[in-house]
Structures are given as structure tokens and as C-alpha cells.
UniProtKB/TrEMBL annotation:
Its EC number is 3.4.11.-. This is Aminopeptidase P family protein. SUPFAM superfamilies: Creatinase/aminopeptidase, Creatinase/prolidase N-terminal domain. Keywords: Aminopeptidase, Hydrolase, Metal-binding, Protease. Gene3D superfamilies: Creatinase/methionine aminopeptidase superfamily, Creatinase/prolidase N-terminal domain. GO terms for molecular function: aminopeptidase activity. Pfam families: Creatinase_N, Creatinase_N_2, Peptidase_M24, Peptidase_M24_C. Residues 310-527 form the Peptidase M24 domain. Residues 538-597 form the Peptidase M24 C-terminal domain. Residues 7-138 form the Creatinase N-terminal domain. The lineage of its organism: Bacteria, Pseudomonadati, Pseudomonadota, Alphaproteobacteria, Sphingomonadales. Belongs to the peptidase M24B family.
Length: 598
């Protein structure tokens, strides 16, 4: 297994043994997670792809890897064109590709613990038109040929204090019980890891950069619940916190428990629960209600304690970022910096707070051409030297017990070109367009998305990712259901009504392939907007992230008076929030960096 070609060959041999003509390999786990533990990194092991979203199909004589626009460049750098076809999604679905490429009468395997039921139905229908069959496997064939596959994490759980959570687990379960009773349902299956962490006020260390634990839960209409988690992960403190109303079981008992719900009305989320969960409920004779996980929206609407904690985390994180920006500006021109060493230094500044639990994702530390890869992941092999004439883009965040942060800044090394300044300023205009938006309660993210793109559209430019994603409260840095994006952008719909209390990112960008990338990202909170004479409830955004926006990249002539007013007011607020945490030399640097622009 010394090469990816060997791994692909080994998988094909295993498929022959399993009497399969093909197999589908998604990048997810049995909880439909975006970020997964090392044990579930099957796509990366098989292909070399290091992105956070994608899938592959392996047939006997051809193979294809499916990625969206965020990874157009990255997939070509990391996955060999000698063995893999590059297929864009959502332009081409896996189901439609299978319908065209699967052999007549072929047997295409899939792991029912890694796909939704809707995906299974679409793939089965497409294959049936070709006279082919979709076959559920009991053992994933990738696992069978992965000789050193890591074991799932055995890290212990921890308690998220009620003061930080803002509500007790009992209160949250009571709300779920009311939701069930209103729908005349007996139970709901919770399989999304962040839903379980939020509902039970627990956290874990089973997934890199996301404080969740591998577990399942069944919540009941009487307010009790069954939690399925490996026993060795439970400390006495966690057991005491969970209490008697939560029955504890080994994680391996989950599927049998589903089959034991015979005759019960059981809710399960079609988007977040895998096909195997629905299959087990069907096998047991339960009446399935295909409803969205009730935790999803409740978790997205942050309570006052979560908002206060997030603001504290942002202030702390902002000071660490300012120290990094000062260090970078002074160090980069001397030479010797690399993408990897810069990322390590930023992490060190965050760690100096003494409160950093983890990064919230792998830092995107990208200079020059790597900056044009929106979700670039720096490695020892890919790390480039940071040189004069380049733009350096750093997208990073921290996990703190009181909040999850995510911020992107761009720094010129030396004098930027006129093109760089024009593009940066247009991205800034789009960022300000979102930051200052006022909109009716119930507006969707899809309706706002063009506010961020209009300044780029004016000159025939655009960017190939969403403008904003939801963010958790010491949970996932990418949290739904809210988004700011085009209606059906890669990664999901953006038609969820926006509501006060939701966190979102505001991150328009621009990417010139092979040369540079630009993105300006702050996190925002949806708040009620007080508009004199308004005839309906209106909402707006409160910016939560505080760090300077690079003035050397701004072309003031492109900004309107209102945009300049916003920028200067924002920078004054940066000094107010971050300044008191800085040493005198750091504060002087910041004051010069954010001096008002006339």
C-alpha cells in the first residue's frame, strides 16, 4: 500500500471477492459529519484528497472523484489524473454518473451507515434504468484493505457547564419532549454529534477540531433519553452530570435498540440520519416520521449565555490575531517564513491565552498561488515560502470553552499591485454590504448572498463558495441550518429563514488561479434592527470579530462615504475591544494600522 495506485488496485481486488462491480466512497462518518475522525477518512486514504467534502466511485475499469467548486484546484493537485476522473458537483451527481458508467447488470456497493436514504433511493433509481443493482454491504470494503486504519477515538467525555450552556440538559430534553408530544411521537433519534453534545451539555475529543463524542441518542416524549456511547468514555463526573433520566448503553447497542422500537412513532432526520438507521427502524416495525432533528434550530438560536461567551472568546481571539498580524508584518519581509511556520506561530499566539482547547479547523495558511485554493490545507509537502510580492491569506479559528471563532485576513508581503488592491477593495465592499444589511424577519441567506457579490459582478468577477455559514457555541465551526449562499450552493440549501440569535460568518472572496486569493471574514450575530417607522420586524447583523482589515490593500476611491464610515467605525471598535489586552508596543502598532481613512 505504498502508493495510492496500490490502494485503488487493492480495493478493486476486494470488490471482486465481494462480488461487486463498483463501490461508492463518501467523505463522512456514520453521523453524516462534515469533519470526521481519522478512522473514517476513507476517501483521503484511498485517493490522497485532503479536502473536507467529496466522494468517489470505484468501478472495475474506471474511477471518479466528485468535488464542488471549492476544491477544483486542490483535487487536481492531490489526486492523480492517471487513475481518477474529476467530476464537478452539483453539476453532475453521483447517481447520474453511475447511471451512465455502471456496467449493465452490475452490482454497485454502498455502506448504509455512510449515506442518507434519499441518496440511496436516487442511486438505486439511476442504476435500475441501467439494469444495475445497488447493494448494501455489511462490511465496508475500504476497511477490509486499509491495513493500518486507526481505531475510533477512546477519549473521555467532558461536561459543558450549565453556566456556559445557558440552559440545563433537563430543560433542553423537556423542550424536545414537548416537540414530540406536539407531533404525537414517542421518540426521536439523534445521530448528529453536535446535536447530542448540545442536548446533553457534554463535549468530547473524538473529532479533530470539533469538541464532540462518538455517540447516538434516542430522546423520549417523557423527557428521558437513551445515550449510546462506549463505556470507557464515561467518567464519574459525566455519569453524575447525566443523571438517572438518561439511560446509558454501549454504542454497539444502538442498532438493536432501534429495532426494539416496534409499534412506536419515531422521528428521524432524513438529512442527518443515515440509511441504516431508517432500515433498522423499518425492520423493527416502527412508524417513521421523517422530520428535521429538533435540536438543529434550537441549537442555532443562541441564548444570552452563549452570546456572552462567544463575545468573550472573540475578544481574546482578536488580541491573539493582532499579535500575529504585527509579528507577521515585521517578520515576513526578512524572509525565511513558510506557510507552515506562520500557521504554527498563529496557533502559538492563541495558545498563550491559556484557554485554547483546540483550533476550530485546520488553519488555511496560504501564500501566492495556494491562496487561490479556497479550502487549501497546508502540509509539510505543500508548504511554500512566503516571499515579497505575494498576498498571504490566513483563515483560522480557535475552540474555547466559551466560544468558537473563525476569521480570515489577507496581508501583502511588500507592495501590492493595483489589481490586488482593486480586488481586495471589491471584496471589502461586499463584506460591508452584508455587515450593514437590514432585512425583514424571515429573509433567507439566499436572498442576501448577492449583496456580497455585486461589487465583483460589476467587473465580471465572482467567487465559488458560499458567503456565510452558521457557527456553533463551542461546537462545530460549520453549523446549520442557516447559511448565506446562492440557493443551492455546494454543501446544502440556503433557504432557511434567518432569525435573531443566529451566528453566521461574513466571508466574500476572490481567487485568481495560480496567483493569489482574497477573503475577508468576520463572524456576525443576527439581531433585531430598530428602524423608525418600520411596518414589520426587521433584522440586521452585529459584527463579533475584531481585528484590523489591511489598509495597504484598500483603494479608498472605490469606497462610498458610507462604506468608509463603516470601516472607520469598525476599526475604532477593534481598538476598544482588543486594545486593553495589548502591551504598549502592540497597542501603538494597532493604532497606526487602524487610523481612520479619509
Amino acid at each position: 500500500m505504498s502508493s495510492y495506485a496500490d490502494r485503488l488496485s487493492a480495493l478493486r481486488e476486494q470488490l471482486k471477492r465481494d462480488r461487486l462491480d463498483g463501490f461508492v466512497v463518501p467523505l463522512t462518518d456514520e453521523h453524516m459529519s462534515e469533519y470526521v475522525g481519522a478512522y473514517a477518512q476513507r476517501l483521503g486514504w484511498l485517493t490522497g484528497f485532503q479536502g473536507s467534502a467529496g466522494s468517489a466511485v470505484v468501478l472495475s475499469s474506471e474511477a471518479a472523484i466528485f468535488t464542488d467548486g471549492r476544491y477544483t484546484l486542490q483535487v487536481r493537485q492531490q489526486v492523480s489524473a492517471d487513475h481518477w476522473q474529476y467530476v464537478p458537483v452539483p453539476q453532475v451527481s453521483i447517481a447520474s454518473w453511475l447511471g451512465e458508467h455502471a456496467p449493465e447488470g452490475g452490482r454497485i456497493g454502498y455502506d448504509p451507515w455512510l449515506h442518507t436514504r434519499a441518496w440511496v433511493e436516487d442511486a438505486r433509481k439511476a442504476l435500475a434504468e441501467k439494469g444495475a443493482e445497488l447493494v448494501a454491504v455489511d462490511t465496508n470494503p475500504v476497511d477490509a484493505v486499509w491495513p493500518d486504519r486507526p481505531a475510533p477515538s477512546d477519549a473521555t467525555l467532558s461536561v459543558q457547564d450549565d453556566a456556559a450552556a445557558g440552559r440545563t440538559s433537563a430543560a433542553k430534553r423537556a423542550e424536545i419532549a414537548e416537540w414530540l408530544q406536539a407531533r404525537k411521537a414517542d421518540a426521536v433519534v439523534l445521530s448528529a454529534l453536535d446535536s447530542i453534545a448540545w442536548a446533553f451539555n457534554i463535549r468530547g475529543n473524538d473529532v479533530s477540531h470539533t469538541p464532540v463524542a462518538l455517540a447516538y441518542a434516542i430522546a423520549h416524549a417523557d423527557g428521558t433519553a437513551d445515550l449510546f456511547v462506549a463505556p470507557e468514555k464515561l467518567t464519574d463526573a459525566v455519569r453524575q452530570h447525566l443523571g438517572n433520566a438518561i439511560r446509558l448503553h454501549d454504542r454497539t447497542a444502538f442498532a438493536p435498540a432501534l429495532k426494539a422500537l416496534a409499534g412506536k412513532r419515531v422521528a428521524a432526520d432524513p438529512e442527518r440520519a443515515v440509511a441504516a438507521i431508517f432500515d433498522s427502524l423499518d425492520a423493527g416495525g416502527a412508524k417513521i416520521l421523517g422530520l428535521r432533528d429538533p435540536v438543529v434550530l434550537a441549537k442555532a438560536l443562541k441564548n444570552p449565555a452563549e452570546i456572552a461567551g462567544h463575545k468573550a472568546a472573540q475578544a481574546r481571539d482578536g488580541a491573539a490575531l493582532v499579535r500575529f498580524l504585527k509579528w507577521f508584518e515585521e517578520t515576513a519581509p526578512q524572509g525565511g517564513l513558510t506557510e507552515m511556520s506562520a500557521a504554527d506561530k498563529l496557533q502559538a499566539f492563541r495558545a498563550e491565552t491559556g484557554l485554547l482547547k483546540d483550533l476550530s479547523f485546520d488553519t488555511i495558511s496560504a501564500t501566492g498561488p495556494n491562496g487561490a485554493i479556497p479550502h487549501y490545507k497546508v502540509t509539510e509537502q505543500s508548504s511554500l515560502p512566503i516571499e515579497p510580492g505575494q498576498l498571504y491569506l490566513v483563515d483560522s479559528g480557535g475552540q474555547y470553552a466559551d466560544g468558537t471563532t473563525d476569521v480570515t485576513r489577507v496581508i501583502p508581503v511588500g507592495k501590492p499591485s493595483a489589481e490586488m488592491k482593486d480586488r481586495f477593495t471589491r471584496v471589502l465592499k461586499g463584506h460591508i454590504g452584508i455587515a450593514t444589511a437590514v432585512f425583514p424577519d424571515g429573509t433567507t441567506g439566499a436572498q442576501l448572498d448577492s449583496f456580497a457579490r455585486a461589487p465583483l459582478w460589476e467587473v465580471g468577477l465572482d467567487f465559488g463558495h458560499g458567503t456565510g455559514h452558521g457557527v456553533g457555541a463551542y461546537l462545530s465551526v460549520h453549523e446549520g441550518p442557516q447559511r448565506i449562499a446562492q440557493p443551492f450552493y455546494p454543501g446544502g440549501q440556503s433557504l432557511e429563514p434567518l432569525r435573531a440569535g443566529m451566528f453566521l460568518s461574513n466571508e466574500p472572496g476572490y481567487y485568481k488561479a495560480g496567483e493569489f486569493g482574497i477573503r475577508i471574514e468576520n463572524l456576525v450575530l443576527i439581531v433585531e434592527a430598530a428602524i423608525p417607522g418600520a411596518e414589520q420586524a426587521m433584522l440586521g447583523f452585529e459584527t463579533l470579530t475584531f481585528a484590523p482589515i489591511e489598509r495597504d490593500l484598500i483603494e479608498p476611491a472605490l469606497l462610498t462615504p458610507k462604506e468608509l464610515q463603516w470601516l472607520n467605525a469598525y476599526h475604532a471598535r477593534v481598538l476598544e475591544v482588543v486594545g486593553p489586552q495589548l502591551a504598549e508596543e502592540e497597542r501603538q502598532w494597532l493604532e497606526a494600522k487602524i487610523a481612520p481613512i479619509a
